[in-house]
Write a structure and sequence with these properties.
CATH architecture of the largest domain: 3-Layer(aba) Sandwich
Shape: globular
Radius of gyration: 19 Å
Structural class: alpha+beta
Number of strands: 6
Distance between the termini: 31 Å
Number of helices: 6
Strand order of the largest sheet: 3-4-6-5
Helix content: 25-40%
Largest sheet: 4 strands, antiparallel
CATH topology of the largest domain: NADH Oxidase
Order of helices and strands: EEHHEHHEHEHE
Strand content: 5-15%
CATH superfamily of the largest domain: NADH Oxidase
Amino acid sequence: MNGPGGPSDDVGLLRGIATTRTIRRYTDEPISDLELSRVLYAASRAPSGSNRQPFRFLVLRDGERAVAAKRLLGRAFREGWNTKNRSDGYETGSGADPTSPKARQAATMQRYVERFESVPVVVLVGLVRYREPSPYEGASVYPACQNLLLAARAVGLGGALTMWHLAVERELRQLLEIPEEVALSACITLGRPEGSHGPVRRRPLVESVFDDRWGVAATWIDEPEESPHPRGPSTR
């Protein structure tokens, strides 16, 4: 919803955290400059190691190079999904039933990659390295990615964080003139949801929180009764 000063947050922080789904189906409605600015402002408020703020956001919309980059990414995403579809058996087991959650997820993914070039906004998230690559460097960039997705939820948008851009990283660097010292840490797609956000399914909190030592369930856990959980042993 947009207020007099631009997009307003009518969701609330805790509700937003509990209801920010990965959104891969978008309408054709464009994202306004103000909405995008608000989302990226929130992303830039994230913490980072020594407060160096090494994250950078390269926004791809409808410019000449952006269109070319989306074509590269569309190819990479389709190849990535085809491989995952086969290796993870999305068309076998319950996936053979088109009404099953597994089959519906596969259909959503297929539509997502087929229409990638029409995604309203793609954000390449970079990390400006100030030392040799480290297994810890993600701690200085992924909080910004989560802030971005939560802020998108707050202003009525939706997004998905992906890594399939890595398959065409060399071409993207050349096309978009990305310096070698910048790690391409994530690719986030953004748009106005064709469906809606809603409560995310997660394992019961009692299975994830231990008290005093590993494996001892925290008896003081108070999880909201309406919190949805995955069906069966798989979280897919």
